[in-house]
Amino acid sequence: MKRTLTRGLMNVLPMAISLWLFWSLFVSLDGLGVLLLELLGIDIHVRGEGFILVGLLVFVVGLAFSVSPIAWLYAWIERQLMRFPLFKSVYGSIRDIASLMNRDGKPKQQKTVLVKQANGGFVVGFIMTDKPPRPLLDALPEGDWVPVLFQLSYQMAGVTSLVKREDLIPVDWSFEEAMRFNLTAGISQTPNGRSDPGQA
Q1: DSSP class of 120
Q2: What pTM value is reported for the model?
Q3: Transmembrane region positions (predicted)?
Q4: pLDDT digits over 86-98, tens only?
Q5: CATH entry, 111-195, from 2.30.30, 1.20.1050, 1.10.1330, 2.60.40
């Protein structure tokens, strides 16, 4: 009975939590949209109207940023706000994460590699960029150094280490699948090395 209950939880819980998170996001955005409509004097209460409004606003903002003057003005405001250290730290981190997630139309620089450890084992890492910051290159010994991210299991945090390119073993594995492998400590995988959506 205990095994059956555990099996049921393992199958139902991920789906239930995922649906709950998406529903919570939907309700929050819908509430924000309804609030905007009420501020405009529009009193229509239909489930989803606020969510549609927020979606349309985001789409319009996306179109607006394709216009040079608006993009320039936003960049200027961004530069002024970045003068404040606390805002710079918080906003910069969020912007970097958003940039990592939104890679449409951009060359995917992230490459999956294996790095040999002192005990003879290997760890999965990711080359995030081929161009380390100049201060780091100036401080390091001569060589072709690249930043390699070692993802920590069950969290988005990781450790970035500078490794010589010659010490890396390239792996024909997509960034998304390898990231999923690391995040789940190797649980989410199939015999051929491809992620199995049914096991996530």
Answers
A1: S
A2: 0.48
A3: 12-39, 51-77
A4: 887 787 777 766 6
A5: 2.30.30
